[in-house]
Write a structure and sequence with these properties.
Elements (H helix, E strand, L loop, with lengths): L1 H7 L1 H9 L1 H6 L2 H13 L9 H4 L1 H6 L4 H8 L5 E7 H11 L4 E5 L1 E4 L2 E6 L3 H11 L7 E4 L6 H4 L3 E4 L2 H5 L26 H27 L2 H10 L3 E6 L18 E4 L6 H9 L4 E4 L4 H6 L4 E3 L4 H14 L2 E3 L10 E2 L13 E9 L15 H6 L5 E6 L17 H16 L2 E2 L4 H8 L14
Parallel strand pairs: 1-2, 5-6, 7-14, 8-11, 8-13, 9-10, 9-11, 12-15
Antiparallel strand pairs: 3-4, 13-14
Helix pairs in contact: 1-2
């Protein structure tokens, strides 16, 4: 279902959902062939990244701690799956550290999947026998017994029944061999049949609700905005941890507005900050879809990634009023903070860190490979999206020569990152936008100014 929805379309996912009753009536082999045909037919091979950007998160949430413990005892691990290899290889190798992965190959014509799997079972068995040396003490661990030479010669055989697997404890995130920091896709829930039914029933109403919420955000005054949006199901939880009660005052000495420095959860971060302060201000961003830029109720300014030019742009905007910046340069869904660009530390001596977090139940409002113009609408299509905005203690930057601090711009950026991380209980990292897009989209995330992609 994830492949059909994320790599295909809503229609393709609905077709697969409609076939679920048939899939329960046929055997496992035919069921897999039907699902592969519906999910992969017509998908471009070179553009397929669901196996590395979407599926690992859902696979990890289904890993049992007991089975993981058995797996970690092996010196050489071999993973064998009846699913297409392109779906499981990244998860097994990168996140479970499986040494060798063997799955079924998909047929390709003209660079596109045709929805058929190659009959390569004998080839897989031959390759497994090549990997397993004669003196290896093999342990077979599976949810289904199968007859193979390398299984019959195994020293130990573990066959886990479905009832036993249901009693397993889900592997805690702190035990993951590799932290899951980046993942893509739009679905924010496990695509089980009942949940998918609810999603398909909700979808038409969600489109109307998203449009209605957008109109409210554009047309209503700030004083009434939060209450009306709350009536539609959108929640804003505002906390001010700043000892200075007036976090919206201006820096009269330098005739500058305050610089609000936020972590980046969705494209709506500046809007929710504006809603919380009940006043409009400008926001700078490294990239923004043209549609989002036109519909934004606050002023947005594009940055060029030219340090000197961006510094001049931000300084100019600060002299006109308050400004918000997200120095991570891109969004991150998981409880991690990417490296903060230190440019903001040079522009103002009155910096207000803001910790942001969001919660959705149905659709993610961010994407690395999809249409960025749909991000705000999909976020607002959730039944009850929640945003938490927390203002932290104001700090000084390094722009003023009279400043008593001897900290460098990097020290200030790292301090702001650490304070936001402590507030949200997020883990700070040194990863960047480039790292994210290399993992999720296979590029460095740089686009020209006329592109809508991020």
């Amino acid at each position: 279902m994830l492949v059909a929805f994320e790599a295909g379309s809503l229609i393709r996912a609905f077709v697969l959902f409609a076939l679920y009753p048939l899939l329960f009536l046929v055997d496992d082999e035919l069921s897999i062939k039907i699902m592969v045909m519906v999910s992969f037919f017509g998908i471009k091979k070179d553009g397929f990244r669901v196996g590395s950007s979407v599926l690992p998160k859902f696979f990890l949430e289904d890993v049992g701690a007991e089975g993981f413990d058995v797996l970690r005892r092996g010196k050489k691990t071999v993973g064998v799956s009846k699913l297409p290899q392109i779906m499981v290889e990244c998860f097994l190798k990168d996140y479970l550290e499986i040494d060798y992965v063997f799955g079924r190959e998909l047929k390709v014509h003209g660079g596109y999947f045709v929805g058929l799997m190659k009959d390569n079972k004998n080839i897989i068995e031959h390759r497994i026998n090549e990997v397993l040396e004669e003196d290896d003490q093999t342990v077979y661990f599976s949810n289904k017994f199968a007859k193979h030479d390398w299984i019959s010669c195994s020293k130990e055989v573990y066959v886990v029944r479905n009832g036993e697997k249901k009693a397993w404890q889900i592997l805690p995130k702190e035990r993951y061999p590799k932290d899951l920091i980046f993942h893509d896709g739009r679905l924010a829930f496990r695509p089980e049949p009942l949940r998918m039914l609810v999603m398909f029933m909700w979808f038409p109403f969600a489109i109307l609700l998203s449009i209605f919420r957008t109109i409210i955000a554009l047309a209503m005054p700030y004083g009434a905005l939060i209450a009306i949006l709350a009536f539609t199901g959108m929640q804003l939880k505002l906390t001010n941890n700043n000892s200075n009660p007036d976090v919206t005052s201006h820096d009269h000495k330098q005739h500058k507005g305050r610089l609000y420095v936020c972590n980046h959860r969705t494209l709506l971060d500046p809007l929710y900050l504006s809603f919380g302060l009940k006043r409009p201000f400008a926001a700078v961003t490294y990239s923004l879809s043209r549609m989002s830029e036109i519909l934004s109720p606050i002023k947005t300014i594009r940055l060029t990634r030219d340090r000197d030019q961006d510094a001049k742009t931000m300084d100019k905007m600060l002299r006109l009023g308050d400004l918000v910046v997200c120095p991570e340069g891109t969004t991150c869904r998981e409880p991690y903070l990417l490296r903060f660009s230190p440019l903001f530390a040079e522009l103002s001596d009155h910096i207000v860190p803001v910790a942001l977090d969001s919660y959705v139940t149905m659709f993610y409002g961010t994407t690395a490979s999809g249409l960025k113009c749909l991000d705000p609408f999909l976020f607002m299509m959730n039944p009850n999206p929640v945003y938490r905005v927390q203002f932290l203690e104001q700090i000084h930057g390094v722009s003023s020569q009279a400043s008593e601090t001897k900290s460098t711009r990097f020290d200030v950026a790292n301090y702001v990152q650490s304070e936001i991380g402590k507030t949200l209980d997020f883990k700070c990292t040194s990863l960047t936008r480039k790292d994210k897009y290399l993992v999720l989209a296979g590029n460095e995330g740089f686009v020209n100014s006329t592109s809508n992609k991020r």
